[in-house]
């Protein structure tokens, strides 16, 4: 399918039609960001002017890995508009994948969603939860998603250990041996405590920042629209519910 020029700008940050200035809206709603050809009802939208005559149009999505999603079409104020958010009255226009330069720390994680595992490193999780005040079930959900509890795990992006700490993060928290389960869990728990404090207890944002970094969450004012991060947050929240149930915690899973 050949995209109209405005949609090339919307999805790729590229000009692909007759030269002219075009306006694209970056819209924030809840913890998510979308791009649209008109301001979205219920979102905080900022207009971005794109000049087709520029040597290189800006990448409106930022520095991402591979971002897959859906572009929706709907009628608004008597004309067709397009958005990456599924608003009432929208219909699917096309599915897309945008590949952007590497370098973003976002990752899918090494652990698969499965049954809760209470045995691995039980003493270390209990001790870290007691020392930091971060819920044991939440720490286990992160570790499960990150490494599947494998103390020797090393990701393609360089994260290490049970909690898959990046070298800079491990250094920040005094982790001398990132492949030590006890040190990794302790460092990961203290990092997570800092994130939960930063985001006022919002587990979704804390998970997103653990995955993609604080800078990405700040840049998008919410969960970054990276395919890896969106999948990761969904995985962690599902695991969190399973660990709370397995540990006999009956209250509702808090998003915040």
Task: Describe the structure in your own words.
This protein is elongated. It has 2 domains: 5-99, no CATH class; 122-246, Orthogonal Bundle (Lysozyme), CATH 1.10.530.10. The chain is built from 8 helices and 6 strands, in the order αββββββααααααα. The chain has 256 residues and is of the alpha+beta class. The model is unreliable at 12-20, 52-58 and 62-66 (pLDDT under 50). The strands form 2 sheets. A 3-stranded antiparallel β-sheet has the order 2-1-3. Helix 2 (122-132) runs parallel beside helix 5 (181-198). Helix content is 36%, strand content 18%. It comes from Stenotrophomonas lacuserhaii.
Which stretches are low in confidence, meaning pLDDT under 50 for 5 or more residues running?
Answer: 12-20, 52-58, 62-66
Q: How many β-strand stretches?
A: 6
Largest sheet: 3 strands, antiparallel
Mean pLDDT, all residues: 83
CATH topology of the largest domain: Lysozyme
Order of helices and strands: HEEEEEEHHHHHHH
Number of helices: 8
Helix content: 25-40%
Domain Transglycosylase SLT: 125-221
GO molecular function, one term: peptidoglycan lytic transglycosylase activity
InterPro entries: Lysozyme-like_dom_sf, Transglyc_AS, Transglycosylase_SLT_dom_1
Signal peptide: 1-21
């Amino acid at each position: 399918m050949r995209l109209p020029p405005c949609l090339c700008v919307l999805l790729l940050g590229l000009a692909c039609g007759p030269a002219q200035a075009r306006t694209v809206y970056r819209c924030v709603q809840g913890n998510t960001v979308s791009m649209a050809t008109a301001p979205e009802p219920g979102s905080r939208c900022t207009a971005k002017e794109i000049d087709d005559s520029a040597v290189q149009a800006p990448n409106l999505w930022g520095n991402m890995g591979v971002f897959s999603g859906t572009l929706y079409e709907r009628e608004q104020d008597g004309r067709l508009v397009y958005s990456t958010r599924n608003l009432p009255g929208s219909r699917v226009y096309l599915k897309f994948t945008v590949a952007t330069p590497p370098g973003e720390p976002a990752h899918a994680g090494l652990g698969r969603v499965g049954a809760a595992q209470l045995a691995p490193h039980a003493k270390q999780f209990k001790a870290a939860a007691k020392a930091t005040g971060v819920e044991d079930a939440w720490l286990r959900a992160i570790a499960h998603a990150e490494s599947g509890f494998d103390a020797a795990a090393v990701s393609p992006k360089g994260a290490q250990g049970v909690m898959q700490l990046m070298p800079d993060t491990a250094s920040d928290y005094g982790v001398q041996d990132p492949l030590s389960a006890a040190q990794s869990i302790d460092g990961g728990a203290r990092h997570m405590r800092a994130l939960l404090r930063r985001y006022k207890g919002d587990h979704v944002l804390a998970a997103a920042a653990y995955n993609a970094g604080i800078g990405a969450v700040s840049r998008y004012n919410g969960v970054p629209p990276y395919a890896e991060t969106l999948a990761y947050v969904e995985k962690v929240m599902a695991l969190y519910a399973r660990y709370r149930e397995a540990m006999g915690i009956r209250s509702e899973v808090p998003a915040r």
